Amino acid sequence: MDTRQNLLFAMCIVILMIQFVPVSGVSLAQTDTDRDYWPTDEWLVSTPSAHGLDNDILNQIDNSISENNIHLDSVIIVSEGYIVYEKYYNTWTQYMAHTIQSCTKSFMSALIGIAIDKGYIDNVSQRVLDFFPNYTIDNWDPRKENITIENLLTMSSGLEFHEVDIPYSDPLNDLFAMYRSNNMWQYVLNRPMENDPGVQWSYNSGGIELLAGIIEQATGYSIVDFAEEFLFDPIGIDYFTWWNVPASGQYGCSGGLYLKPRDMARFGYLYLNEGRWNGTQVISSEWVNVSTQMYYDTGSWYHYGYTWWGVPGFNFYEATGHYEQKIYVLPAEDIVVVFTGDIADEDWHPTDYFVMQYVLTASEESGHLDSLFVINLSLLVVVVLPVPLLVIRRRYH
Hints:
The protein is an alpha+beta fold. It contains twelve helices and 13 strands. The chain has one domain: DD-peptidase/beta-lactamase superfamily (Beta-lactamase, 3-Layer(aba) Sandwich), CATH 3.40.710. It is about 35% helix and about 15% strand. The chain starts with a helix and ends in a 13-residue tail after the last helix.
């Protein structure tokens, strides 16, 4: 069997394997772990070998990025709370805030959890319209009354929202039409219903903007102030910028956050530790567990939780953003991985392969991948990606 056949056979086995993994009820949260320090002020740096990782395998990430001219801007690997691998490219440094695109959505999920923990919101079964009592809503449909916070978190609201099926340059694209509106929350609430709530997953950034509206309406805080006081400050995120949408004056909460990569890692580390940070329960462990379960099959490689993505058959979950912004949480390995980048190809997501074939296999105790699935990325780029069967997903950002 030649190299091409080997690669196709290996990937077909992966695809067949994930078809038999159930969608719901799979929790990927971390178990209790004692920490010898917390990176609130700064991260401590160590070596891969000091934390049971094979340095030569991890270095293949850098080799693959360089040899294949992959447009990534940073890579960080945190193992057992220490930065053991950190690379920057294309003039980027650790001190520069980077767009995190739709990784912002996972921060919004965390803020909903915090608002519930603090009693501002009762639970995810609350009806969305209850938080917008003074809004007059177009395209009225009684099914809108049944949309819940959970529906927004899982992108199953049933609202029609043409974001990924129409080019962004098209005036009919709802994402940019929403940005041009004078009230993004009103725009989303006005959308017609396409399905009953909870029936079907459909990518919808507008629902995440409604989550911001719910937090602001329920708490009296701006979303930025709420995030800073209850999430950023407790875990040491001391610098960020957040896009304020000019037409509406509302903050872009589906993709407008800019953070330093090390601060993206702090967020992943908070989830790795089930919401705990240096003796403080910043987010309840119950929320971390429920939000990182996978509830919907997206119709491609991925399943979807409360804004977190998962690959069936692999014990990690990820926040993901357009142009290859990623925060991976690997509970069993006690690892967080962060990527930032500028990859415009909407069908290519090499960071998933880096995690599967390099990070997981670099762990001496992972045992999660058989050698069958260890694939050379340089061959993957040339041989595997042109095969339609192996395209990972469309541009969900």
